[in-house]
Amino acid sequence: MGKNNILVSIILIIVMIVIPVSIGIGGVINSFTDNIDENYAIPLINMDLYVNNDGSIHVIETDEYSFSGTFHGVHRYIPLSGTQKLENINVSTQGAYNDFNPDTDAIDQGDQDKITVDLYSNRGLTAPVTNTMVNVTYQYDMSPVIKFYSDTAELQYQLVGTEWPVNIGHVNANVHVNSSQGVQYWVSPPYYDQSSGWNANTLQITGNTIPSGQFFEVRMTIPKNQFNSTTNGIIINQNGLSTINSIQNNYLSQVKFYSGLYTALAVLLIVGCFIPLILHFRFGRDPKIDYKAEYERDLPTDDLPAIVNAFYGPGSIGDPSKDGFKATIMDLIDRKYLLFEHDPDDEKNLYFKVNTNKDLSTLNGFERDIIDKLDDPESDVSNTLEKSMGEFVEEGENQDELDIQNALDQSKLISMKDRRLYKSYYAWRDNISKILTKDEVNKKYNAIGSRYLNYFAGIGFIIALIIYSVSSFSTLPAASLTHLSSIIFGVIAIVSVFIPRRYVGHWTTAASAEDNAKWQNFKKYINDFSLMKEYPPESVKIWNKYLVYATALGAADAVRKAMEFHLPQEQLNDSDIYMFNYYGGSALLSEAVV
Questions:
Q1: Of 110, 140, 141, 125, which Cα lies nearest the Cα of 73?
Q2: In this predicted structure, what is the pLDDT of residue 507?
Q3: Mean per-residue pLDDT, 66-91
Q4: How many domains does the chain have?
Q5: Are residues 226 and 288 in the same domain?
Q6: Which residues pair with 58 in a beta bridge?
């Protein structure tokens, strides 16, 4: 079972990795179309920026549009700051016609200029563009731009602003200055800077993909002697060179720090995904044993069914389940402490009767508790079993052939609202816990790994959620890896809730490990119809014992069906254990105890 859950975990992780999460945003900001399902891309922006001698700049920008569908044109928003303005705006297009008029199509909106370019596929300017590539070239002068400090001049310009609603595939920018001598530059964010360097007096910048909503800018400090005038610049009467250097150095240090932090977190999260496996190797390996049998035909130990259920049943080790509760009642019937009889006045009515000829003082407390409740005609258990089983038999007699599942589906057992056996079952669990104390369980089985796995599941999910949320707001490339790692880590934490706790626990001694192996082989035997057919029990008494312990192991149906195949009806009718199971006592307990 542990290996199967690991496989499920791996499959879930692969699904989380390979399913693309894409967010499509319609081009309503930078393009306009009749159909919101149509889209466009901008594979490339080419830009030439000229620093003028008076503090203004001249920009030539070519945006390459790839249109899928029909579009009437594009909008270009150019951010402005303070008293900045655009002049001498001109637009040209390649791959489409346009009717751009700077007087009507370029609108100053205060903090930005909106340039509208209508695109046409024909010379008559009547048909929009459809499924094509179009290059739109913008030319304009911007002022004031250059900041003039006492000791330097500064250019800070966003080559790509945050206003783009789609990713920019690639950026080629050339910044032209009078001389590269004494010029310092920074390209931010540095992780979008594929390459940058001087070619004579031109700074050539190549940018990687710029995600939608992110910026890509160049910042320069330029010797003031390269300017003839400050007319179209911004004058700041203080030194600025050291401050600019300090700001950029601090920014780069932060980028480096947080990139390292996110990388370390990603590594820790990936390593953390192996915690369940580490817990298995540390706490989940049983002592080596010499036992090599393929199956067991006889009961491996003389433990009571409730104890077998608690240690070797399908539930958590040391924690008896409803199968143990049912098996305890059946064992009391098999040992004749309880008699399962028809009412002599009404054959349809079945009831329990305590055998007063047996010495009840020899029973354990959890067994005596069941006897006491069944001996009390006013008790929940006695009334519930007697009434419901009578109804079950009555409904079954109306059928040509008694079909247990159909009768159960139609009877009042399933719709029983008050669950009167519920409290009795948990009272039984409380009593048996006095025997199966923590110290007693630990003598046979060490479950500390289960506790650690529970901590991992809860704390791990919270950690994954926090890191997922924090990394969602970062544009650092390292944060993307951390983001993905947190998803994987969170999935592992969730899946670990369903990993059987036996996977991270172990039997403390070779003897207890061998007992477990034998009981599992016994369960394999009773579940294998071909083995039961080839090596059936030799008497009804052994069949009864098998049915009791099969119930404790969660395999009662297999033994009941094998009994029906091997034993004549007369012998089945004489088996109180079989009749209890057949007439719905076991099913009633399953429905009442949840």
A1: 125
A2: 94
A3: 94
A4: 2
A5: no
A6: 50, 141
